[in-house]
Amino acid sequence: MVYTDLHYFGCLTYYQVFAKHEQLVFDSITAFSKMSFKNRMVIATAQGPLHLTIPIVGGRDQKTPMNEIRIAYDSPWRSQHFKAISINYKRAPFFEYYVDSLEQLYSIEHVYLNDFLLATQNWTKVHLKAKWFIEIANEHTSIQQALKWVDPMKPNNFETSNDAFQYQQVFNNTTGFIQNACILDALFAMGGKQVLSMIS
Fold it and tell me: pTM to 2 decimals?
């Protein structure tokens, strides 16, 4: 079992940890922390890494428990994020296999950040064809002898990981390999079966 935080389509190294476990337990009550992947992911573009951030009600400078964080909809972030993903990955070999279900994922207006993050994790599990079991921990959950794993990768250091493997990215020829981008990057490049094999 791994006990950790929910991320917005986490980095490749985040999923490498998951592949070593049969059960994922996500913390739903720890306070929101800025400069984390709880509401941000990194995609590869022709200009280099692009950070996509989900806006939250009250801004990022707050210590509200994660299960109380609401998504802000005063800007069309869902369509912006989906458009950015589509534009930058439309030439990726496996993008066409995932685009329809991904668009459906972004069509749902979740009130709470945790609910959307959980939806992204379930979507990823399905398309990786992973066997791990996903559970959400709350104040009533008893997690015995479980130390919380905190991903050392942050939006300002995600490329420093030495653990992520390399593969052919869409913009390799212009940007070079962008290390440890979000799981979507690898999924669109290689397909779920191959990604799961590489991270396991």
Answer: 0.94
Give the Cα separation of 77 and 163 in Å (integer): 31
Distance CA 29, CA 126 (A): 25
Q: Which two tokens stand for residue 34?
A: 């800025």
pLDDT digit string, tens, across residues 93-108: 999 999 999 999 999 9
Instruction: Map the chain to HEC letters.
Output: CEEEECCCCCEHHHHHHHCCCCEEEEECCCECCCCCCCCEEEEEECCEEEEEECCECCCCCCCCEHHHCEECCCCCHHHHHHHHHHHHHCCCCCHHHHHHHHHHHHHCCCCEHHHHHHHHHHHHHHHHCCCCEEEEECCCCCCCCCCECCCCCCCCCHHHCCCCCCCCCCCHHHHCCCCCCEHHHHHHHHCHHHHHHHHC
